[in-house]
Amino acid sequence: MFPQLLNDSRAFEIAKALLEGFNRHYRLFREASAAAKQRFEAADWHGQQRAQRERIVFYDKRVDEAAERLQSEFQAHRLPMDVWQQVKLHYIGLLTNHLQPELAETFFNSVTTKILHRSYFHNTFIFVRPAISTEYIENEEPGSQPTYRAYYPNKDTMREELHRIVTNFQLQCEFDDLSRDVDNILRAVAHHFGEIRFRANFQIQVLSSLFFRNKGAYIVGKIINGFRETPFALPILHNSKGRLYIDAALFGEDEMQMLFSFARAYFLVDMEIPAAYVHFLRSLMPRKPRSEIYNALGLHKQGKNLFYRDFLFHLRHSSDKFRIAPGIKGMVMLVFDLPSFPYVFKVIKDFFPPQKDTTRELIKSKYLLVKSHDRVGRMADTLEYSNVAFPRARFEEELIAELKHFCPSLIEEDQNDLVIKHLYIERRMIPLNIYLAEGTPEQIEHGVIEYGNAIKDLVAANIFPGDMLWKNFGVTRNGKVVFYDYDEIEYLTDCNFRKVPEARTEEEELSGEIWYHVGPKDVFPETFQPFLLGNDRVREVFMRHHADLLDPAFWQGHKQRILAGHVHDVFPYDVQKRFTRVRHGRPHNGSGSNGLLVGDDGVPETDGAPSTSAEA
């Protein structure tokens, strides 16, 4: 029971210290996000990517600082339960008019669970459910920026209003030809909507902050006409002359889902009221969980919190059992799922076969690399949890036996609960090997082409997957192939791509053993063939579209360009949507799926089109 009196003076001081810790965190988070505009204007692409990586660790640093303060000033770990209950009540009071209450509640949970034993973690102490509503939060101070701006064009003023939508962001760079870009948008609108009949409520709502990621800045909003609401996004890029241009007009929920995919890096967005942004974005993508929207905005701890709440809710309203996940079992990870829940749970095993020369800490570092790197739509985001208590009765006995055999150090069990001390959670996909084995000829062709495109996108992002077997890739619900097995992942620039040496003797040629020296980072692309192309139908499609992946020169060329400072263009939308499809009278030719403009000499073109750098 909560105390009837708030009679311990320490409780208010602790609550205030906790909120001060959160406010410092969010101020630094906003500063990093706001600075993305200046980096974009300066075309500082490496700085933009560095900021995306560094911002990920902000939260944990502030949690550590707050926990240390509570320990040193209040000996927090020694305080009795009734004091902590008072701390929570004071904290709720302090959040009444706060602009980020849901994030502050999550910060409270993170700090206090770092200090105290998990036996304290129940609803009367931490925020299992939100205590403060996030609906209709507004900053009432004069001069504060609204969450979104509304524009009311008619048939005669549409061009003028589109121009105003873009210029209201006050980017400190010239547009190459904004009138041309507005013409392109109007043509795209006409193509998507046909003849527009303007209803009384016709308006365009646009979020007040730009969304920055790598080299792109995105205008995000929706068009409202009568009962119809259509999401849209306008990507803004730099050309080779340092001027801006609008590259495409994206319409509809599916396009937005691709832009905000769980397989892409987090956006940098300056938001005073994040819940209002999430509410607006959810209206554009109603199928997307709020947890994934928070993740996409860089608020991944809040995403984790919401995901866990959704998970507990699902457990209460389902009765199926956790099982060993279908597919080929991994050598490093034990993977299980709940059939009714669209995610998989991955636990690092305590021991590995001899061919896997790795450790638990090294594997965790690989997953952190993926979390902080540009995932270019080809690497699944992961949620990392510690000390997760599952109802033991919901586990199949075969799964419990596997956990006890392969992961005994990570398992605690009593009559009611099975606690897993560390695990990762990812979106469930169809393993590519199963997709190819069960697919029609058309699906097989699509899967193989997408597989090669996925690898080429990863290469463009300086990632070598390591283990390229089909089973380590999955197919999403929209048919996109995504990589999800990270224990052998490496930076491309750390690898040495070599051609297999010619045999010097007949004995060497006939030998079943490798007779040449292989260094720890050596990769021989020719040797991929026996493992990938045993199926004739798969082989035919692969060799037609992606034979270059078997050539060391392909890998070496990309490595050299990355080392020279080149950052590739990888577009989070279909390159056919781009307004710059034709340059110099020649059709646009994609390099893999990464949308590079390639000239007659094979060199990416940038004259008046995109500069030779990362994601738009």
UniProtKB/TrEMBL annotation:
Gene Ontology CC terms: cytoplasm
Boundaries of every Isocitrate dehydrogenase kinase/phosphatase (AceK) kinase domain copy: 320-574
The entry's keywords: ATP-binding, Cytoplasm, Glyoxylate bypass, Hydrolase, Kinase, Nucleotide-binding, Protein phosphatase, Serine/threonine-protein kinase, Transferase, Tricarboxylic acid cycle
Keyword Kinase included in the entry's annotation: yes
EC code: 2.7.11.5, 3.1.3.-
GO-annotated molecular function: [isocitrate dehydrogenase (NADP+)] kinase activity; AMP binding; ATP binding; phosphoprotein phosphatase activity; protein serine/threonine kinase activity
Record's keyword annotation contains Kinase: yes
Listed InterPro entries: AceK_kinase, AceK_regulatory, Isocitrate_DH_AceK
Active site per UniProt: 381
Protein name per Swiss-Prot or TrEMBL: Isocitrate dehydrogenase kinase/phosphatase
